[in-house]
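User: We ran a pulldown and think these components assemble together. Before we commit to crystallization trials, I'd like a predicted model of the whole complex to look at. Sequences follow.
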Amino acid sequence: DSGVTQTPKHLITATGQRVTLRCSPRSGDLSVYWYQQSLDQGLQFLIQYYNGEERAKGNILERFSAQQFPDLHSELNLSSLELGDSALYFCASSVATQGPNYGYTFGSGTRLTVV
Amino acid sequence: GIQVEQSPPDLILQEGANSTLRCNFSDSVNNLQWFHQNPWGQLINLFYIPSGTKQNGRLSATTVATERYSLLYISSSQTTDSGVYFCAVEPHTNAGKSTFGDGTTLTVKP
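Assistant: Here's a predicted model for the assembly, 225 residues in total across the polymer chains.
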């Protein structure tokens, strides 16, 4: 157990639907990162939050949104789902954004299948 | 954006052999990490190494930031080392956005 908890582990949903993926970071970590892993695109950075504030944004689709709550857990919302959104969605956390203690700890991922 | 190239893309070894994986990047970086994705999909952080050399058991890594590359050494490989090894870099110009390479797929045969 890495200490980063992602739920659910698997999700199957239909095109056009909306889902919410949840991530609880490792205790003490303030930064949360979301990544999408698909066969054709590899691991793609979506978004980063630090202590509740959006810190960096990648090529995240407008249909996707995220937030980090006061208790530091984060949610990734995916709407108007398309077949191409099927992928593994990973959350990672880190205690800081740089420095000797920097380093991602990944959760086990949520496998999303859009049918 | 920053380009990250990993080589070789695939590597097959016999148990007990040594290997070197390479990560080249196109811009100055704040952070560099190496990860192992096991056959069950779990991503494990191996090293945070923006510069210098680190060792952890049979694994060691060296980053030469001025020449924009990093190396991951695996000695006395075991079947449990199989999986995909990723390098991830965060450029100076894009703090917070770590870009992953395409990975090296390692297969260790008994």
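The longest strand of chain B covers residues 29-37. That may be worth checking against your pulldown data before setting up trials.

User: Thanks, that helps.
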